[in-house]
Amino acid sequence: MTTRGLATTLMIGFTWILLSSASVSAPPRFSPVDQIHHIHGLAVDPNDPAIVYIATHGGLVRLVDGKRWEYVGEGRSDLMGFTVHPSERGVMYVSGHPDHSSHLPNPIGVMVSRDGGQSWQPLALAGKVDLHAMTIGADGKTLYGWNVSGAPGLYRISVREGTWARVDATGLQDVFGLAAHPEQSDTLLSGTRDGLVMSRDGGRTWSPVSGALSGAPVTAVAYHPKNPRTLYAYAARPDLGLIRSEDGGEQWKSLGFFLGEKDAVNVFAISPHQLEIIYVSTFTSDLYRSEDGGKRWQPLVRHGRPTRR
Predict the structure, then answer these.
(1) Collapsed DSSP state (helix, strand, coil) of residue 294
(2) 62: closest CA among 76, 87, 37, 43?
(3) Which residues have a Cβ under 8 Å from the Cβ of 39 and sit 6 or more positions away?
């Protein structure tokens, strides 16, 4: 190799190193939040108990240490469905609608982030589905979502390949929320307009969980991430409200948290780190935190405005 050739090779290599280093070391982007519009999803970071993610009409927000509110990244899409991978650091999934400055299709289908929400890549069904409820199965490989656009119904998506199928879902309709059993890959829970239903075959068939909840709209559901015998739900009826089961859904007890006739809980987030800490959001963009398993509640957001501590 000539001296000039060697110099050119070294320069190209040096430039590649600089560009690669710049890409790897690019700092994460956060910006302050004063107003939250329409909360559609919640999750406590599986790797950091101090961080709570909030999927909103205007993008992904996070709450840090209970006092710092900030947008994550630069995207401001309307995130209707949202779930975080329970074991893969920084991996999360969304569905919904693009912001006005985006070139994404509407709806956006299912998108994945592998850097804690800083950037998003298409995974499946772009332009075809708007999933308003999402959950990831215990195997960590299968995403379930309830679609309200195009061909509505329950969809099953592989988070590895992006392949998908529309599930027959006999007995499931008018879905508000979905929750996957944290240990049994084929077991799913759903809150619907007519009550609480469960599937034990990967969503193909569904049956009522408890006769006591029949006919009561169940607007949110959740399994305890460390003790799946403990379930939470919100039933929009004055004698029920926020309810808890400690026997897998056979018996339920009201925790005395009822939001009246004009609001209801729409999403739960139960901390996998501190087992009595629970977050709930409502349809009117309130956000509450409980440190005792749902007995007492502290407001964090009132009608979209964070309460400063």
Answers:
(1) coil
(2) 43
(3) 54, 55, 56, 266, 267, 281, 282, 285, 287, 301
pLDDT of 23 > 60? The answer is no
Q: Quick one: how many helices (H) and strands (E) in the chain?
A: 1, 26
Element (H, E) at 31: strand 30-32
Domain count along the chain: 1
Residue 17 falls inside a structural domain = no
Q: 159-215 pLDDT, tens per residue?
A: 999 999 999 999 999 999 999 999 999 999 999 999 999 999 999 999 999 777 888
Instruction: Write down the residue that tokens 């056979």 correspond to.
Output: 250
| 6 lies in some domain | no
Beta bridge partners of 234: 220, 242
> How many Cβ atoms are within 10 Å of 134's Cβ, its own excluded?
26
Establish if 7 belongs to a structural domain.
no
What are phi and psi for residue 16, nearest 5 degrees?
Answer: -60, -40
- Asked if residue 20 is part of any domain, the answer here is no
Question: For 177-190, b where at least 16 C-beta lie within 10 A, e where not — what string?
Answer: bbbbbbeeebbbbb
- E strand segments, 148-200: 153-158, 164-167, 175-180, 188-192, 195-199
